[in-house]
Amino acid sequence: MSTGNQKRNRGRRVTTFELPPGRWATLLGQLRRGGVVLRLLMCTATALALWAMTQGWNPPREFRPDRIPVRDVIARTYFEQPDDEALQEARRDARRLAIAVYDQDAAPLQQLEAELLNDINQLIAAEEFSEVDLAMWEAFSPPLAEGTPQPTVEEQAEQFDRFRTALTAEGASERFKLTLDEIFAPLVNQGIIDQLPEDHDANTEQIDVRPLGSTEFPLTVAVGDVLLDNVANGLQRTFAQKLSSLEVADRVFAWIKPRLPVTLRLNMGDTRARQQEAADAAEAEPKRFEVGDKLADARGRLEDPELEMLELEYQQEIANRTLEQRVRRSLAVLGMYVALFTVCGFFVYKLDPEIVRQLPRLATVLVTILATVGSMLVAHGYHTQAEVIPLLLFGMTMAIAAGQEIALLLSAALTLVGVVSVGGDLSDAIVMLAATTGAILVLDSVRTRSKLLIVGFVAALVAFFTMIGVNTVMGQPIAPTFRLALMLSLWSVIAGSLMTCVLPLVERVFNVQTDLSLLELGDPSHPLLQELIRRAPGTYNHSITVASLAEAATEAIGGRSLLVRVGAYFHDIGKMLKPGYFIENQGQGNNRHDTLAPAMSTLVIIAHVKDGADLARQNKLPECIIDFIQQHHGTTLVEYFYRQETARRGADPDASEVDESSFRYPGPKPQSKEAGVLMLSDAVESASRVLVEPTPSRIENLVDEISKKRLADGQFDECGLTLEEVSKIGDSLVKSLTAVYHGRVKYPDQETA
Q1: For a FRET experiment, which of 46, 47, 220, 744 has its CA 20 to 30 Å from that of 236?
Q2: Helix H segments across 651-717?
Q3: pTM (2 d.p.)
């Protein structure tokens, strides 16, 4: 029976044995997690936004004003170009042919007719010539032909009698008045003008006449019909035809001719409006370009006319694209973006997993990518090569926020996106990526305000020589290439200057601290440090010493030494709330822990970590400094009081075992190499104070003992410190402590204290 049980147990063990999942199974399992799906959706939304922003369904323009074509530019599709010269000529003709508007003031003509009738009535009222006003009769006398003698009085009397008889016959006066009204009617409607004014730049054959102050439709008349001389000649013929007596006709015309008034005045406002309306309605035949027509010559700079033609050709080509072509290109562009996100995502996760794990940080990076691409498109539309400014700003921002490796990777990806979007080529990508790479490689730290300007000048230098070299290889002429290189260098310097201005915003958005901000934060005049000096001077001196030790040790492993130094300044600020419970602030014979149980003393000691973090948050210290405050003890054991409690319970046979977790700090364990260095430096500095004779060998033993104890306790499991780095840290601490406790010359009269 036992054999059967063994077989069943062995079979159960075999069936329950499973190999670890493979790579694809692991990936599939990760994809089932909600957090991973959310991050994938965020990246997908960013890729779609890039596709929409860069109009991925349309090909980019293949012409640029800074690029000199190496071969003739040929039209690839039929398109039309408005002929500006022909259109301007058509508009000028339309303005010239527009009919001007004149205002007709009929009152002078009506007054003239009334005066004529009045003078005639006065004349025919006289029965004898001797009673006639000679001046008035003279006005009715036609001019004599050259060489004709003046009529005698008798002849004038005979002429007057004929004139008076013709007008005083039965019904003659009424017929004359009606005839006069009929003759004056066309003049009242059409008006009279001496000649066209100088500012009459419209139609010279016809004009529109409109009664003064009227808005009704005007009367279109020929200019010749209203000219004063033509009107006078017409009146003379009309009088001869309409009046039965030639004597009357000649004398009435003689009176009227010198008195004919000018009644038409040019209405400039309405005329200009008509001319503008006619010009706006004018059209001209466009220029037509067939497939294969030459648009620009090889080796020639693209000027505005050529660029305009190329833009029209591009717009026509876009309009001719079918839905299938748009879909194909959209899928290709989206595929490229997805590939870039995939490659960059894996590398970013490998280099700095926290960027992917922390959702706000990932969202910030994605938004920055979108803002950079959008700014590149806007800058390119403003000026050629100006898109390098947003790209440089992005590269420098990522170098500060995520490190140089990630900055180089993401900048290369955005360079590809930007070049494809604006229609650049390989040479453009090389130049922009070279400038960005130069800026990123120089930007290892920002310790001074001039550093970013230096970075901008370095990028400008790299961009200048790269542009010269690449364009020379591409066969571009040296003169325009030199100008473009200078312009690109200017953009690079501007980017460095802009980065100096936006640096505080970058630090706040990405929650990072540059060396420059750390130097400002580590100023001894900081209110928290001043309060620490006042309340707990011993703790302050301890913090200063730890800062010196930790800075040197961090430099030994290539970490951020300035960050550790500033973190050490603040790591024990929580002690200022209860300074008397810490040995460095106590006088001889005055230990408050003598009256407390070990467990209570442990709570007081441990509380300085939480109190310090709370003080730091209240005073708005950055998270990287708060991390040092929380992690500098990790989850280590408060050994002194733990041993006291163990000894006390050991003396009592009825006491329970000591719970070690109650005597440990709450943690977390150090999460960075710098926090691990600070933990060791803090522990070593405190322990070295109790050495009776701190010789180098004793210091070395002390450091080695504490290092091994922290390693054995697992305090460095989460910070990434290697055994080699722990050894280097220990060597640095030994050297620093040996320098602190170096021997001194003992003078003959000096006694040991």
Answers
A1: 220
A2: 673-688, 696-712
A3: 0.71
